[in-house]
């Protein structure tokens, strides 16, 4: 049975040749001026943007587990660039596991920000003890406590709203797999909210 | 010569009309739902991605050895890259920033040491007129601020984890770049960065 494209009745052959009616286009798209999509776009190759780019962060509000344990499933590459909001916690140390330090995960990055007073430890853990995090904890007096081979980076129970940090997978080499940056204190003293383990 | 698109044998005209077989499409594409590509994508116009998930581009710099020298100058294509700086040997290593221009405002990179540097890494502007707004932690809670530097250095003492970001914030040479988000690799939080 024929289909219609606009006002025209199309044969099956014509419909199969047309991309206007939802056909799958293969090959390269060049010469495009405006591109508008409404669904999910996936670019698995290198993507270069040489003009102004606007976007919003992916925000994910975590839920208090109310007991010690994993607050959610382990992070994967699908979580990259997500800003996780950590609520006040109850019941014990709650953790989240990083993706493994593999070549495919290099460049993975995410941020954690406290939404209230943690009250319990919130721990970001490597997937394996061989995977290390290069960390720096502000001491509140201008210097830091350094641990360049940590397995975990944590909000302590004292962390309050606004405390945050970013973690990025920078290498598939286990010893230098992750780095901590963008550390922000929620406490005026500027210490006691972040700790490596 | 005719070819097939799917199960249909098509002539030259039909082939020319069809975008199914990899033709070049010009004009606007709208009404697209899902878009999936596996090659290199280039967007030279303003781009609104809505919610964006991406991995950072990470590039390992190479120790030049010898007496050090100049690493490949940075370009527009490096924007968004996190450069890993290995322990260096032989002498000072330099890397040149791109010239300030309206097209590059927003350009940014980050440098992270992945070992004790042992030699200085100098990040340099293109000319003396192009300036960097810098701050160097003094380890006691305050910073040394210089608003007209030509260089920002990771010093030989810089340890694994030491890092900083630099962003082109203006096409005006006098306020072209800003250093920010410094992370120490040593507990004293001083003597790993300096401007020049």
What labels describe this entry?
A: mainly beta, elongated, B: about 200 residues, mainly beta, seven-stranded mixed beta sheet, five-stranded mixed beta sheet, about 5% helix, about 40% strand
- Stretches with pLDDT under 50, minimum 5 residues of chain A: none
Biggest sheet strand order of chain B reads: 7-9-11-16-17-13-14
Number of extended strands of chain B = 18
Order of helices and strands of chain A: EEHEEEEEEEEEEEEEEEE
Rounded average pLDDT of chain A: 91
Characterize the biggest β-sheet of chain A. 7 strands, mixed
Number of contiguous helices of chain A: 1
Coarse shape of chain A:
elongated
Protein architecture, described:
The complex is a heterodimer of chains A (197) and B (196). In chain A, 3% of the residues lie in helices and 41% in strands. Chain A is mainly beta and 197 residues long. In chain A, the strands form three sheets. A seven-stranded mixed beta sheet of chain A has the order 7-9-11-16-17-13-14, with no helix packed on it. In chain A, a hairpin with a 2-residue loop joins strand 1 and strand 2. Chain B starts with a strand and ends with a strand. Chain B has one domain. The longest helix of chain B has 6 residues, at 12-17. Helix content of chain B is 3%, strand content 41%. At the A-B interface, helix 1, strand 3, strand 4, strand 5 and strand 6 of A face strand 3, strand 4, strand 5, strand 6 and strand 7 of B. Strand 6 (53-56) of chain A pairs parallel with strand 6 of chain B.
